[in-house]
Design brief:
Layout (H helix, E strand, L loop, with lengths): L5 E5 L3 H12 L3 E6 L2 H10 L3 E4 L5 H6 L7 E4 L4 H14 L4 E5 L14 E3 L1 H14 L3 E4 L7 E6 L20 E3 L20 E6 L4 H9 L1
Parallel strand pairs: 1-2, 1-4, 2-3, 4-5, 5-6
Antiparallel strand pairs: 7-8, 8-10, 9-10
GO molecular function, one term: potassium ion transmembrane transporter activity
Pfam family, one: TrkA_N
GO cellular component, one term: plasma membrane
């Protein structure tokens, strides 16, 4: 990533907190908004970053979180309606902000009329949520293959798999690389994972993070 982003995450539960950790580890400035006082205390004990207690749909609270200078707001609570409300409120206050909402039901793509991206964290993990927040080169086709995720991933410079033929990459069991560079043909053992090129990969949910580590670093 070439620049530091200012990111607000609404929801400090497992998904929100783990996503925040990933983003912070990559050097981004992250602020968490969480309603539950006990959870706020737990986050504050584990992580030296800004944590605000309150309702992220409240304009005063998201103003306190710095919405006017934020690049992205990601609503990652367990409530779909609340997440959409947070994103809509943020977009009203900061029209150019990127909005990402956690969706807990099928048919979530319909919500992209209201937000820039949706995530299904129960299936894809916090790393995919982080990639969506950054607007990065990972896309997931959800709810078309049962629990299997079909992902379109651009290989990052310096990633462990970058520049290597498939035969030399130790993908975890439950992974199938489907296409070669940019979907021109079916992948073969000698297909080389070139930095900057995109590949279609079928992934079982329990190995998504491992595959993304290999392809994205």
């Amino acid at each position: 990533m070439t620049s530091t982003l200012d990111i607000i995450i609404a929801g400090g539960g497992r998904v929100g907190f783990q996503t925040a950790e990933i983003l912070a580890d990559h050097g981004h400035d992250v602020t968490i908004i969480e309603r539950d006082e006990r959870m706020v205390s737990e986050i504050a004990d584990q992580w030296m970053a800004t944590v605000i207690q309150g309702d992220a749909t409240n304009p005063d609270i998201i103003a306190q979180a710095g919405i006017e200078r934020a690049d992205v707001v990601a609503a990652l609570t367990g409530e779909t309606g609340l997440n959409l409300a947070v994103c809509l409120a943020a977009a009203e206050l900061t029209p150019d902000i990127r909005t990402v909402a956690r969706i807990d039901r099928t048919g979530g793509e319909a919500y992209t009329r209201f937000v820039d991206a949706v995530v299904f964290p129960e299936r894809a993990g916090s790393r995919v949520a982080a990639n969506e927040i950054l607007g990065s080169d990972v896309q997931t086709l959800a709810d078309v293959t049962g629990t299997l995720d079909i992902m379109l991933i651009r290989v990052a410079d310096g990633a462990p798999a970058a520049g290597k033929p498939l035969s030399d990459v130790r993908f975890p069991e439950g992974t199938l690389v489907v296409s070669d560079d940019n979907g021109e043909r079916i992948a073969r053992a000698d297909t080389t994972l070139r930095p900057g090129s995109r590949y279609v990969i079928a992934v079982e949910p329990n190995v998504v993070d491992e595959v993304l580590n290999l392809m994205r670093g």
